């Protein structure tokens, strides 16, 4: 009996690569590890230093820009106008004259002034004619001094040390009824407030402390009705 012919079938050999046999998650992890090791290897090279410095400078610049924008929009209104350039006309309305600190220097020890003489020599009217009462003080950042009105004396101020807003009551100023300017941190200012005129000093400097001297030509009794307090509610 003849043997039945056996039919044979040979399947084509499939070539399976190692990468295709891997699960996709394992392959992704291997690529991630390879990328990380490549970055670490690059950072160890000397020529990576300029690249790192560039990244650091870029991040620093972005951080400073964000801080500047944040402080500009979040600061109180009375702190925002410290960057305004004030003219001589503005100073005149506020009955104030400013000087660069270097202009007042007399010798290597620094500057020294007589507040009454400085105001008179600067053409400021309405200040103290003598110093019957003198007070010297400081105003820390964000602090307010005065914001009152004396009815019994004229007063002269010398202001220095920090960006400081000086406000003076002025009935002829439209809409506000006061004039105000900001004295620079590198300036010394002399200002006068005639009797019956409200005045205020505000430190608008984020860091420095304001120093001031007030000279009154009569003794003020603050417990009497000769002084009006808290004249401006926005300070």
Description:
One of its GO terms (cellular component) is trans-Golgi network. InterPro entries: RmlC-like_jellyroll, RmlC_Cupin_sf. With 235 residues, this protein is of the alpha+beta class. It has two domains: 57 residues, no CATH class; 151 residues, Jelly Rolls. Helices cover 31% and strands 28% of the residues. It contains seven helices and twelve strands. It has a five-stranded antiparallel sheet with strand order 1-9-6-11-4. The chain has a five-stranded antiparallel sheet with strand order 8-7-10-5-12. Strands 2-3 form a two-stranded antiparallel sheet. A hairpin with an 8-residue loop joins strand 7 and strand 8. The chain is elongated and about 85 Å long. It starts with 17 loop residues before the first helix and ends in a 6-residue tail after the last strand. The mean pLDDT is 82.
Q: What is the CATH third-level topology name of the largest domain?
A: Jelly Rolls
Q: For the largest beta sheet, what order do the strands appear in spatially?
A: 1-9-6-11-4
Rounded Rg:
37 Å
Largest sheet descriptor: 5 strands, antiparallel
Number of strands: 12
Query: Any idea how many domains?
Result: 2
Question: Per CATH, which architecture of the largest domain?
Answer: Sandwich
Give the full name of the CATH homologous superfamily of the largest domain.
Answer: Jelly Rolls
Q: Overall mean pLDDT score? A: 82
Q: What structural class should be given to the helix and strand makeup?
A: alpha+beta
Strand percentage lies at 25-35%
Give the low-confidence spans: none
CATH class of the largest domain, named: Mainly Beta
**Helix count, per DSSP?**
7
Helix content: 25-40%
Query: What is the approximate shape?
Result: elongated
